[in-house]
Amino acid sequence: MIDGYDLLVKAQCSESMETLGFSKEQILEVLQNENRFDVISRLCERIAFLLYQDSNFGLLPIDETVSSSINRLCKSIVSAGFPLIENETFVGPSTSSDILITSTSNHSKERILCALLLTTPRQDVSTLLPEFSSEYPSTASFSQKLLDNDERFLTCMLALLPLIEDLDPSSVLYPVSVFLESMHLISYDCEVLIDWINSELAASSLILRILKSNFNEKTRRFWTNYEPKNITQSSLITSYREEPCPPGKPVISLKIIEHVGNQKMTKTVNLHETKFKRIAVKKPEVLRNSGRFERWIQMVSELRIRLKKLLAAKLVAEKLELILKWTDTVCVAFEE
Asked: Are both 166 and 224 inside the same structural domain?
């Protein structure tokens, strides 16, 4: 049987289920037998992403054999409760006690949520979200978690966006608020969008669908009426960062003699021990919502200018002409 970790590594390097190189039966066998939570949670998310990408990000039918297995597995994980993994690495929980990291490094919930969003039929998605909404004190806090992984943010947004008319706008996971709070967190920097478009397959689809949703008569009001939900000021929590200490006395001194012609050149190299100190940093326990639709429109205007220059210089793919067209449409509609 294929080892789950080997399948995970191959999946991370693949861009479709076809290039993954394993049969459905082999994948299902791994999903059913893998017991390491860090491996299975990453596998569920990655395989779900490949299936979703193969469906043109939700526009075409998705392969139900593997997706339904992932969906059942993720639901069973949610029902059983998440294992406590505070400090994670790619290969699993870190056992190092040298570096203190807060629980914000744990993204297991986001992985399972992403896998569920990508494998659940649209009509059933709204029923699974309340279980996750309670895990995040604000939309901004949820958005911050998603933005720790570009691919996860983009695909989750693609899956949430069709629910714009179905979900309660006050929900922490409401797509309009998730997107606008995320844009606020990246400081409305259009260069981030361009980096996404150049590096992530899901980015072009998401930006295009967002712009169409902004302009659409049925969904426009959800964007223009958005107001950040007020969050009561919470207590501060302490996290830590490490900074190098000033160098002390040399631990080792080396005297090096070089012969240059008939002369001897002598120099001394001092080797210092590198020590680090922990610096306490206080920040609000709950990240406040601050996104604004008006700032997003300004960002779209900047994106339009940058795309025109990049397309004229042939520095980006011609397919981005369609995004440029929609930035024109949106800017004309909202800058009047």
From this structure: yes
